[in-house]
Amino acid sequence: MRAAVLVALLSLPLFAQLPEGASLEIRVQEVKGEVEYQAAPKTEWKVAQVGDILPVGTKLCTGVDSGAVLAFGTNSVAMLQQASMMNIAAFEMKGDELVAQVKIDPGVCSVSVKQLAQFQTDFQVSTPRLTASVRGSGYTAKANGDEVPDNITVDEHFAQVVQASGAERGVAQGGATNSNNIAPDQNALAQNIVDAVFGLADNEQDPGLLASVAQNIGVDAGSLNGFGNPVANGNVGPQEPQQPQEPILGVAQFTLTWGADPRDLDAHLQGPLLGGGRDEVFFGHRTSNDTLMFLDTDNTNGFGPEVSHINQLLPNGSYTYYVNLFSGTGTFGSSPAVVNYESQTQNVQMQATGAGANWIVGKVDVDALGNAVFTPIDTYGAAPANE
User: Fold this and answer.
1) Confidence category of residue 137, pLDDT binned at 50, 70, 90
2) Is pLDDT at 344 greater than 80 in this prediction?
3) Is 246's pLDDT higher than 70?
4) What's residue 183's pLDDT?
5) φ, ψ at 247 (rounded to 5°)
6) Cα 85 from chain centroid (whole Å)
7) b/e string for 246-285 if b means 16 or more Cβ within 10 A?
8) Among candidate residues 167, 195, 193, the one with its CA nearest the CA of residue 180
9) Which residues is 221 bridged to in the sheet?
10) Sign, Cα dihedral of 133, 136, 137, 138
């Protein structure tokens, strides 16, 4: 029986003040295995179901080989992994910023945030000894208990990390830090620092941020000159338009492009995992658990490209590719959205003609010898089941 949907009541004046595109709804988006939640202290624990609305104050618990994906409003996703406990501490507008705060103890939580033009979003994840704050990027926080330090790894752009002691440090894409040593992994490249600062929505940057990031992670700000963003006296110079990077061709790949409206379309790739089971790669989970599928670019402002790769086609496997209409007022057909499928044996272009919440583009079937064939589906509606 479906668990009762719990709705956090919002006063009309507060709701009316929300910027366009903002939402204070926290929705269960995916559930795997045993996931339960307690909506308020001293209330009964309920089995989490896809579609449940969770109020602030909710506690969630995942069992072994279990997990949950929560959508925070319209532009943030939190993925709670197995054997984890999460407390949703806050989700509210503070001035012109949407602030989410969750606490994990113990467990692992990955976060992906999309910045929108209408408002900024700050998503904070706290462990007992670390707090990570992110605006327009993605990271994973892990609370390890008393014997092992808590740690933060940054998957995209940049995160600000604060220890329980108050020590503060910036960590760039590819970097990591833990509660015993606030210094991040020095292998984070200078180019990733530039991406961290200049890859945010609409290039609305705080002057001097680049120099601050460079100082925080131990890189000379002057060394960042030559990446198209000169620094002088701590101020960011004129910015050249960034060109999309050339995608790295996998064994097979899907490339999504679209027009100015709908503003944001999202690529989703479902497929088998090495060793059994299935996974889905999208902006909130950019690399499959076996690393054989990944999304290399998540474009939030129209046109794309978003490129989904399959690095190894698994024998007797089936892959489904679809596109979600994340935000905007147009349709797939009016955009128009275009998907190119490329492999060693096929090159197929699909152009959307319809409307709906999702465009189910097609599927790739692989035989026992590893030969793959793409078959168009071209339907519109509910997202396909990952099976």
Assistant:
1) low
2) yes
3) no
4) 44
5) -65, 150
6) 20
7) ebeebebbbbbbbbeebbbbbbbbbbbbeeeebbbbbbbb
8) 167
9) none
10) positive
Residue bearing tokens 């960034």: 242
DSSP conformation letters of 310-341: ESSPPTT-EEEEEEEEEE-SS-TTTTT-EEEE
Note if the pTM is more than 0.90. Answer: no
Which is it for strands 97-104 and 120-126: parallel, antiparallel or unpaired? parallel
Strands (E), 186-333: 231-232, 235-236, 252-257, 264-272, 278-281, 293-295, 306-310, 318-327
- Cα separation, 274 vs 292, whole angstroms: 8
Contacts of 103 (CB under 8 A, 6+ apart): 86, 87, 89, 125, 126, 127
Contact 306, 175 (CB under 8 A): no
Distance CA 325, CA 344 (A): 29
Tokens of 308: 């989904």
In order of their start, the domains of the chain are 12-190 (2.60.120.1440), 252-381 (2.60.60.30)
Q: How many C-beta atoms surround the C-beta of residue 371 within 10 A?
A: 11
Closest by CA position to 361, among listed 386, 344, 341: 341
> Got the DSSP string for 193-212?
HHHHHHSSGGG---TTHHHH
Across 28-37, 57-66, 153-162, 338-347, least confident range: 153-162
Tell me how far apart the alpha carbons of residues 380 and 272 are, in angstroms, rounded to a whole number: 23
pLDDT at 301: 58
**What radius of gyration do the chain's Cα atoms show?**
21
